[in-house]
Amino acid sequence: MTNETNRAWTMASRPVGEPTPKNFALKESDIPEPKHGEVLIKTLYLSLDPYMRGRMRSGPSYATVLEPGDVMTGEVVARVQKSESPLYKAGDIIRSSIGWQEYAIVSAHTVKRIDPDLGPISTAVGILGMPGMTAYFGLLAVLKPRAGDTLVVSAASGAVGAVVGQIGKINGCKVIGVAGTDEKCSYVVNELGFDSAINYKTENVSQKLVQIAPNGVDCYFDNVGGPVSDAVFENLALKSRVAICGQISQYNAAEPPQGPRNMAALIRTRTTVEGFLVYDFELQHEVARGRIAEWIKQGRLKYMEDVVDGFENAPEAFIGLLNGKNFGKLLIKVAE
Ligand code: NAP
Ligand code: FER
After folding, report:
1. Could you confirm whether domain 130-279 is CATH 3.40.50.720?
2. Using the 8-state DSSP alphabet, how is residue 12 labeled?
3. Is the dihedral of CA 261, 204, 159, 72 positive or negative?
4. Residues 6 or more apart whose Cβ sits within 8 Å of residue 235
5. CA distance 6 to 26
6. Which of 227, 231, 263, 332 is 20–30 Å from 290 (CA)?
7. Distance of CA 68 from the midpoint of ligand 1 (Å)
8. What pLDDT is recorded for position 59?
C-alpha cells in the first residue's frame, strides 16, 4: 500500500429533481498494490458530463444505472503510477472510466493511451474525446449537412455544441447557435465564427429564427429539448433533419415530459428525426480524432475548457453544469 488515501465521490442517494450536495458522499479507502496485468493510476483530470445525471436515475438506459453507494460514473485522464503489465510503464498518460476517484487499480487492457502529440492531455476527454466524437458523428453521419444548409445547434458554447458549429462552418453551412448568456452568444459568433446566435433566456427564439433563417432550418443539432426545440421545430425547412443528441432541459425533471410537443410541424416539413449515441461510431473514433486534431493545428477548430480546481468541488461543479454555469468543456483538475 502507498501512504496516500484514495478518495471517491459516491451517489449517496438518488436525486429527485435537481441534484443537491446531499446526493453525493466522499468515501475514503486505502490504495492497494497492482497485481499481475494491472496498473495503479492517479487521476489528473476528471471529466464532468451531462449523461451522468441519467446514470443517477432508475429506469431503462443504454448503460448500467447507479445504486446508492456506487462511485459516480466518469472518465478521467490519469497517470500510471505503478505497472504490473508490459503494456504500460510508470508515467504513461492514459484515459480510463474509473469514475469520480483519485486512484484506481485497473486491468491494463481496459485503459486507453493518450497521444500527447495530438493536443494537451485534458483534451482527451474533451474535443479529442467523447464530446468531440459526439459532435463530429452527430453532425457528419447523422445530419449530413450540405454546403449552404442552415444549421442550428443548441447548447452552442458547450463541449459538444461549439464543435458542431465549427465543423458546420468548415462544411459550408450557415450556423446559428442557441445559448443561455450574452457572453456565450458573443463567444460563438466572435471567437468561433458562427453566423449568429440567440440567447434563449432573453430573446424569442422562434421569432428571431424567422428573421435570420427566412428559408427555414435544414439541420438541427439538438442538445437540449424543451422550449428551445419547440421554437426550432416551428422553423424547420422542407426535408429538414434533426439529430437528437441530448435533452438536457429534461434531465432534472422529476416526471417524464407528457405527450408529444409540436410534432405536426414534422408532417408539413417531412422532417427526419434521429437519435444517436456517440458509441454507435466507436470503430471510426480514431479517424475522427486525427481529423479534429489536424483542424485544431490548422487553427480551424478552437475549444475552451472550464477547469475547476480540486476533487472536492466535483458535485458542485456537476450541479452547475446542469444549470448552465459552465462555459466550455467542464473538467475537474484533480492533480498536477
Ligand atoms: P455542455 O453543453 O458543455 O454543458 C451543458 C449546457 O447545457 C449548459 O452549459 C447550458 O448552457 C445548457 N443547458 C442546461 N440547461 C438547459 C436548459 N434547460 N435549456 C437549454 N440549455 C440548457 O454539455 P455537453 O457535454 O456539450 O453536452 C451537450 C448535450 O449533448 C447534453 O444534452 C448531453 O447529454 C448530450 N450528449 C449526448 C451524447 C450522445 O451520445 N448522444 C454524447 C455526449 C453529450 P446554456 O447556458 O447555453 O443554457
Ligand atoms: C447523453 C445523454 C443521454 C449520453 C447518453 C444518453 C453518452 C443516453 C440516454 C439513455 O440511455 O436513456 O449525454 O451520452
Report:
1. yes
2. -
3. negative
4. 206, 209, 210, 213, 216, 217
5. 10
6. 332
7. 25
8. 82
CATH of domain 5-126+304-333: 3.90.180.10
CA terminus-to-terminus distance, the chain: 21
State in Å: Cα 277 to ligand 2 middle. Answer: 7
> Is there an atom of ligand 2 within 6 Å of 62 CB?
yes
The reply to whether ligand 2 has any atom less than 6 angstroms from the CB of 51 is yes
Q: What is the mean pLDDT of each run of 10 residues along the chain (336 residues)?
A: 83 97 98 96 98 92 91 98 98 98 98 96 98 98 98 98 99 98 98 98 98 98 96 97 97 81 89 98 98 98 98 98 98 97
Q: For residues 313 and 322, what is the distance between their CA atoms, to the nearest angstrom?
A: 15
- Shortest-distance ligand to the CA of residue 137: 1
Burial of 33 (0-12, 13-18, 19+ CB in 10 A): exposed
Q: Name the closest-CA residue to atom 1, ligand 2.
A: 51
Query: What single letter denotes the amino acid at residue 122?
Result: S
The bound ligand whose nearest atom lies closest to the alpha carbon of 278 is 1
CA angle, residues 251, 257, 259, in degrees to nearest 5: 155
Q: 107 with 37: CB under 8 angstroms?
A: yes
Q: Is 147 helix (H, G, I), strand (E, B) or coil?
A: coil
Q: Which three cell numbers stand for residue 266?
A: 414534422
Whole-number pLDDT of residue 259: 65
Contact between residue 16 and residue 65 where contact means Cβ atoms under 8 Å apart: no
Q: Cα(124)–Cα(143) distance, rounded to whole angstroms?
A: 24
Cβ burial of 327 (10 Å; 0-12, 13-18, 19+) is: middle
Domain locations along the chain: 5-126+304-333, 130-279
Check if 50 has its Cβ closer than 6 Å to any atom of ligand 2.
yes
